[in-house]
Amino acid sequence: MTGNIKTPLEKLPVTLRDVEAAAATLAGFVKRTNFDHSRTLSDITGAEIWLKFENLQFTATFKERGALNRLSALSADQRRQGVIAASAGNHAQGVAYHAARLEIPSTIYVPVGTPTVKIENTRRHGATVIEGGVTLEEAASLAKAYGASRGLTYIHPYDDPLIIAGQGTIALEILSSVPDLDVLIVPIGGGGLISGMAVAAKTLKPGIEVVGVQAALYPSMYNVIKAQTLPMRGDTLAEGIAVKAPGAITSEIVRALVDDIVLVTEQDVEHALSLLLNIEKSVTEGAGAAGLAAVLADPDRFRGRKLGLVLSGGNIDPRLLSGVLTRQLAREGRLSRLRFDIVDRPGQLAAVVAVLSNAGANIVEVSHQRIFTDLPAKDVVLEVLIESRDRAHLASIIKALKTAGIQVEVLG
């Protein structure tokens, strides 16, 4: 893909005028989130990083922009009948919240396995939530059939000009704050967010580069635009962009306006999510961290450039977040599990603990196993979970143990 616009902007299904009209509709009802410079992330990546905190919307997701714009266009009869949507969680919350505010009954289908936090938040906004279908596509099919039988208006999560225009208001806010950006880096699921943002950005500043990011496990738009057939499978941390079939409207706009699409691994996303929490003190879900993940995965591409990243959502299950942070600590050598095969006699555990303590390790957990082991009856397995400052510190701890004649195996 190149930076050349392949279809005239005025002939696309969504125009800057549509985005500006959406901005007027949203004014006073959707938060104009901060777009702030991150000095520390800029130092780490070698690029100038600016972050759009859409995870700080009332529903913790940008999705309420498009949802409100679409709901506001309903006729009086459609409002009385009610609406239905299918969503992995964020579109659901946007629809549910603004439907309740506009006194429109709403029903939401979510795929089985959607994070509990997203389901509960959707119910809290007053929607009827139905779990059905393994994938978002299956949930959408069920939702359409259910809605058709009850006269409900289906609110598409991304392939709708009004939805796209609503999401595009983010680019208006970004460029009004920092007009000299070089690149916008935007997560892609079905494509609604990047389509709307690309329309606004490329119209206002034709030379700006727009880069989309997808999880490597779900490269749907990547496949469409680059004529690839990469498989889509598995559970991704970025479930908010785990879409198997991007929209027809969004694909047309992406093909015309988006300069490139890159893929990020699960480890890239975990690393980015951890940095955003530890450095920016901001909770993001996997999809929300995708933009930073792309920069971390290919720093040479973006070095020295001024980047705008969208933290698209912050709805992540606390237990999952805890696991991600713990895994990242292990990767950085700050949390390690050590195994010792020691003789079962008094003083052996104390000797190991003394060396660890003197080396500056913090002992988090100790497991002393005599029964479920294939060691001789007079030996035991000792496993110790320790905290260290970094990998260099961990290496010095291992060296101290071996110097003391204590054999150790680092399990992770």
UniProtKB/TrEMBL annotation:
Catalytic function, reaction form: L-serine = pyruvate + NH4(+)
Residue span, ACT domain: 337-412
Gene3D superfamilies in alphabetical order: 3.30.70.260, 3.40.50.1100
Needed co-factor(s): pyridoxal 5'-phosphate
InterPro entries named among the record's database cross-references: ACT-like_dom_sf (IPR045865), ACT_dom (IPR002912), ACT_ThrD-II-like (IPR044561), Ser/Thr_Dehydratase (IPR050147), Thr_deHydtase_catblc (IPR005789), TrpB-like_PALP (IPR001926), TrpB-like_PALP_sf (IPR036052)
SUPFAM superfamilies reported in the protein's UniProt record: ACT-like, Tryptophan synthase beta subunit-like PLP-dependent enzymes
GO molecular function: L-serine ammonia-lyase activity; pyridoxal phosphate binding; threonine deaminase activity
One GO-annotated biological process of the protein: isoleucine biosynthetic process
Domain of life: Bacteria
Keywords assigned: Lyase, Pyridoxal phosphate
Homology family: Belongs to the serine/threonine dehydratase family.
Protein name, UniProt field: Threonine dehydratase
